[in-house]
Write a structure and sequence with these properties.
alpha+beta, four-stranded antiparallel sheet, 8 helices, about 25% helix
Length: about 300
């Protein structure tokens, strides 16, 4: 099958590789333009662009699919387009180009968590099961009929980064299988059914921890926003980034937001019981083990805001 692959971040790379290994003809790769990365703001190609360049594939760099891009797609004479986290809308004129349409790999069990941050919202909300879906892209937000799904249990130690990595691997296989079924005339998309939930893009504000919340809600939020946009709190008016936390339901007497050290463990009180910090990153510094950070403060009166 002659396809266009559209994607941008690292989680899309396994799908590009899987489709190539499965024997599909990748006519071109559509990805977002080079972006400034890191503290030094180095202009850097997207992970998908880098993978495509290594494979010697034609690359189309565009942050929006405008008329010139649509004309390029027409010239490619595509059977289908596979899209994984491209990061831009596909207009109606582009949707009409491939014979079999655009097949989207989305990292949720649709119609759950439609939107830009499905894995993050799944963890924040405490889902036990996550997964990925392939569906026929249409103008609505992740509303198209579904070709197939794959499920993945959520582990207690999962962060959104860790879970998304697993889903990127299993989802890549699902996407390849979906395209193969399309080519063989066996794919039958089924309209979505069930309760709809939305997963809008998270901002930095979504990573702020409210210590009056129950410990489990705090753990889920930190796991959901790790690594992006990142969990944080304030200490003496300065932003402090936080790694994942561990639950300590046996310790309930520490006031919410108060930091205490016990037997080498750095604990913080919440609205229910204590959580244990694992890593802390003070403003302008690297991430530290929580015990090392606490010793370096040389204080016993730490209160997170």
């Amino acid at each position: 099958m002659r396809i266009l692959f559209a994607g941008t971040p690292q989680v899309a790379v396994p799908s590009l590789n899987e489709l190539r290994w499965a024997g599909h003809e990748v006519a071109a790769v559509l990805t977002r333009a080079d972006a400034l990365v890191g503290r030094k703001k180095v202009l850097t190609p997207s992970p998908v662009a880098q993978a495509a360049a290594e494979a010697g594939l034609e690359i189309i760099k565009a942050n929006r699919i405008d008329e010139p891009v649509v004309e390029r797609l027409k010239a490619l004479d595509l059977d289908a387009a596979a899209i994984v986290a491209y990061g831009g809308l596909v207009p109606p004129a582009a949707l009409q180009q491939p014979r079999f349409g655009w097949i989207n790999l989305h990292f949720s069990l649709l119609p759950a968590w439609r939107g830009a941050a499905p894995v993050q919202h799944a963890l924040i909300n405490g889902d036990d099961i996550s997964g990925a879906s392939t569906f026929l892209l249409e103008e609505g937000l992740d509303t198209g009929p579904v070709f197939g799904t794959v499920t993945e249990p959520v582990r207690s130690e999962d962060t959104s980064g860790v879970l998304l990595e697993r889903l990127s691997q299993s989802g890549a296989v699902l996407l390849s299988q979906t395209l193969a079924a399309l080519e063989q005339g066996r794919a039958v998309p089924v309209p979505q059914s069930g309760e709809v939930s939305l997963a809008p893009k998270l901002s930095s504000a979504d990573g702020r921890i409210r210590w009056s919340d129950p410990a489990l809600a705090i753990k889920r939020r930190i796991s959901g926003v790790t690594p992006e946009p990142g969990a944080w709190t304030l200490l003496d008016g300065q932003r402090v980034k936080l790694g994942v936390v561990l639950l300590h339901p046996d310790i309930g007497e520490i006031p919410s937001g108060r930091v205490r050290e016990r037997d080498g463990a750095v604990l913080v009180g919440t609205g229910s019981h204590a959580v244990q910090l694992t890593e802390v990153q003070p403003a302008g510094r690297s991430m530290l083990a929580a015990a090392e950070w606490f010793r370096g403060t040389r204080r016993e009166d730490l209160i997170f805001e």
